[in-house]
Amino acid sequence: MKNNLGKIFIFCTFFLSALFADVKLTLNTPAIYAGEMASFTITSNSDGDVEFPEINTIDSYNIINRSSSSSTTIINGNYSKKISKTYSFAPTKDVIIPAFEVKVDGKTYTTNPQKISVLQPSASKDGEDFVIQIKADKQEVKVGESINLDVMFKYKLDSQIDKLQISDPKLENFWIKKVGDAEKSSENEYIVYTQKYLLFPQKSGEYDLKSLEADVGKAFKQKMANDFFNDPFFKDPFFDSITSTIKWQKIYSNDLHISVKSLPNNLELFGDYTLKATVDKTLVEANQPVNLTIDINGVGNIDDIQKFNLTIDNVVSYADEPKIDSTFEDKEYKGDFSQKIAFVAQNDYTIPKISLTYFDKNTNQVKTIYSEPINIKVINNNSNNTAVKIETSNNTPIVSNNSEETPKIKEDKNINYIVLALVVLVVILALLLLFRNKKTDKKVEKDIVQAIKKAKNDKELFELLLTYSKKSGIITDTLNKLEENLYKKTNHKIDKNELMNFFEDEIM
């Protein structure tokens, strides 16, 4: 009878668990703005065996993050368990979360489909507490032509703002450069912060700069439930920082459409430039370098000027990497391009004219500018000279001349023999000294073995080993132990046999 009652109790327990099992899908983010993360949670309120579905995608959007949690509660002797799994992803349009099957103790439960709406953010407007706007000085440009973009954040004088985070503009096929720090000003009832950017289009096409996002943080104090903290001691500002929390508000800017036209002949350089080429000398000895400096300055996308490489017949050349210094002045991007090229030759040569082709911003036409050719006169040429080469060290050309010296007609063989004899003598003396030193070292090390054996206390052994402190890690460790024994009153055991074995191995 008792056994039957036990079976009935177990059966009832499982029956009630299955009967009251509760599985549901909850949207944590019923609606989001494009670019934000959406998430949903599947929860099972059952103390049975729960098997959740394997979810990797939602309507072609990959699951980016997963998390799990569980909790157990006992109320009036009633035991309940809650298991949850949360999934996060980033949809760009409205999406339906489909029905999922969850098994509890072998029984299948199905969740209800749910919809997450993806909203297009509405731009903040004047009159609101916080406003973010983007403005460009032009919205129709050519490839390489700069655009001045201002990102302005405005807030009312009486509004609260404790933290601010603003995203930087990003646009495919554009090179974007931040200019300086944000400038502060006032406009009617607003304080205005303006951050300037330069945009350089790299490819023609129609582009939309999506609205920028600003996160405005407001600090709120959290009220302590325990009356103990009403003590005046805890009203110190130090505790305010501990008990406050930041509440974030998102605001969005306007969008911006930019039309980029291609340049003729697939050009990428736009602006207004001047070009100059100079050398440090026009008269040079054979196999000595002539240094050419190319200077280009002007307004435009000067960073896109490519490195020059010049090839001249029978002349060795080395082209340094160019250096570009740029500034932003009077709403224009300006810069200086400088590059050095070294030439070495044995005969006269001419450095050809250097050209730069770009689309002129003033005439709206393709323009090519040139430097003048430069004639180099080479003197003291020797027809027996072999080829020269230029090696580099820290980007500095170093000329190496491989020319052979003219052989002497007569050589003093006696001097050569004397030098050879001296070299042999020096080698013999060095070997003798080395052999003698080895014998001395062996004798010294043999003596140290005996001295270690005879050392009566830690102090004698310490003084004996000091000379050999850097000879081995064994000696260093022993010295450290001896020092602690002598000055810190420790009682490290010193292994003399290990020390003697070390020195005996050295003798061998």
UniProtKB/TrEMBL annotation:
Q: Where is the signal peptide?
A: 1-21
Q: Which InterPro entries match?
A: BatD
Q: Does the keyword Transmembrane apply?
A: yes
Transmembrane stretches, start-end? 415-435
Key words, A-Z = Membrane, Signal, Transmembrane, Transmembrane helix
Under PANTHER family, the record lists: BATD, PROTEIN BATD-RELATED
Instruction: Please state what the protein is called.
Output: Aerotolerance protein BatD
Organism of origin is Arcobacter venerupis
